[in-house]
Amino acid sequence: MSRFRQLRNFCIPCVATIALGGFSNAFAQRSYKITDLGINNSKDNFSMAMGLNNQGWALNMDGTVKPPEASTHTTVSRGRAVIGFYGFNIDLGTLGKPDANSWINWGGINERVEAVGMSETADPDPNGEDVCGFGTHLTCVPFIWRDGHMSALPTLGGNNGQASAINNRGEVAGFAEDGAVDSTCPAGTTNNRIDLPALWKRGHVEALPLVDNDPDGVAFGIGDRGQALGYSGNCYAATHAVMWKDNTAFVLQDLGGIYSNVAYAISNRGQIVGQVSSADNTTGYAAVWQDGAEGAVTNLGVLPGDFAAFATGINNRGQVVGSTFDSSGDWSHGFIWQDNVMTDLNTLIPADSNLFIINASNINERGQISGMATVLSGPHTGEIRAILLTPAHERCDLSMADFARTHPSSILRANVCHHSSQRFGPGGFHR
Predict the structure, then answer these.
(1) How far apart are CA 330 and CA 12, in angstroms?
(2) What number of other Cβ atoms are within 10 A of residue 253's Cβ?
(3) How many domains does the chain divide into?
(4) Fewer CB within 10 Å, N- or C-terminus of the chain?
(5) Domain assignment present for 109
(6) What is the pLDDT of residues 14-37, one digit of tens each?
(7) Strand (E) or helix (H) holding 401
(8) Cβ distance 306 to 330 under 8 Å?
C-alpha cells in the first residue's frame, strides 16, 4: 500500500502589532517552563495536548496505547477527549455507551471553551467502517461540546464524520461522509466512503467545494474570519492544500508533489501553515504560506537527522510550531520556527524537566505551546504526556537536548495520534 496513503491521519482573537514581513521581526523566545498536564484516567499511558486557547486551556486526547513499547504495531485501545486547565481535567464523555471512545484534532477549542471532535455512538457502522479508529467498528460522528454537554453534528448523508476545529464565532470545520463509495480506494479498504470537507454554522452543515475532479477532502482548521483550511484529493493522496473562503476553494502553492499537501491553521494576519510534499513525493516538509492563498510557499524543512515534518500552529506574531518524524514514521521532536530558523524545543527547556518533547501542536498569543513529551525516568518511564510550554525569561544553560543526546525511544508511532478517518498527516492511515 502506498506510503503516502499512510500519510492520511492528521494527531487568536488578539491583534498583534508585529508584522510578519520576512518573519524577522517575530519575538524569538529563548526558554520555556514545561508543565506535565497529566493523564485524566490513571489506567491510561498516553495523553497529547492538541487544541489550545489564549487562556491556556488545552484540548487533550487521553488514552491507552498497546503495546506500551516502541512498535510499528502500536494502536490505541481506548481514548477520550479531555479539556485540561490549571491542573484539572474534564472528560468530555461520548455519544455512545459509557465505555465508548471520543477523539479530537488540532484546532478543537476556542476562547469560549467550546470544543469539537468525533465520538463513537452505540450503533455498529452498517458498512463495517471504523472511522474513529479504535477497532470497534461503531458509527463515528462529529460533535460539539459546550456548556458541559456533548451534541452530535449532522453529516452530509453518510454515517460518519469529524469536527476538526472551531473558531471564536462558533463556526466548525471538519469532514463528513455523503454515503457514496469512494471509487479511488483500493480493494479491501475499511473506510471506503467519500469524505467531504465540511463547514458547520449554527448547527447546519454544508459541503465545501473540491478542486478539479477530486472526490475527497478534509478541513482541519478554521480562522476567525471564516477561512477553512485543509486539502482536496482522493482516497490515497492529499493532492492540493486548500483554503476555503466564501464557499470558494483557493489552491495553495506547493513544491510539485501530489501526495501530502495539507493546510492546518491560519493566523489572523492571514499566514497559513501546513505540509507540502517534495517534488519527487518522498518527503513531507513543514510549510508556511506567508501571504495566505496568494502567497508563495516557504519550505521550513526538517530538523537535522529527521525525515519529515509538518506545521500545525501559528500565532499572530508569526511564530510557527510543529513536529518532525524519523525515518520509521515515529514522532521525533517538537519545533518552533521563528526568525527564519527551525529550533528543537528540547533546546529551550531545562535539562532537569524529565520530559523529552516529541510534538508541538499549537501556539497561542501568549506564546504558550501545547504538545506531548516522553517521560524519561521514574515510575512512568516511556509514557507519553500532554504538555504545556510557557515562555520564561531566563536562558537554559543546560537544556534537555544536551541531557538526552541519544533520542529516547518512544512507545508511540505517529499514526497512533492520528488514527481517525482523516486521511493525511505524518503517520499511518486507517481507512
Answers:
(1) 30
(2) 16
(3) 1
(4) N
(5) yes
(6) 222 222 333 334 456 789 999 999
(7) helix 400-403
(8) no
Task: Report pLDDT digits (tens) over 345-403.
Answer: 999 999 889 999 999 999 999 999 999 999 999 998 888 999 999 999 766 555 555 55
> What is the biggest distance separating any 2 CA atoms in the chain, rounded to whole angstroms?
58
Strands across the sheet containing 138-146: 102-103, 115-124, 138-146, 149-152
Residue 238 pairs with which residues in a beta bridge?
260
CA dihedral 43, 49, 53, 56 (to 10 degrees): 70
Matching residue, cell 473562503: 245
Inter-residue contact 364 to 53 (CB < 8 Å): yes
Asked whether the bond before 67 is cis by omega within 30 degrees of 0, the reply is yes
Instruction: With a cut of 70, list the residues of the chain below it in pLDDT.
Output: 1-28, 67-74, 394-431
C-alpha cell at position 100: 465508548
Task: Tell me the β-bridge partners of 330.
Answer: 413
Task: Kindly state whether residue 15 falls inside one of the protein's structural domains.
Answer: no
Cell representation of residue 262: 495539507
CATH number, domain with residue 203: 2.130.10.150
**What is the extent of the structural domain holding 313?**
5-10+24-417
Q: How far apart are CA 8 and CA 4, in angstroms?
A: 7
In-domain check, residue 77 = yes
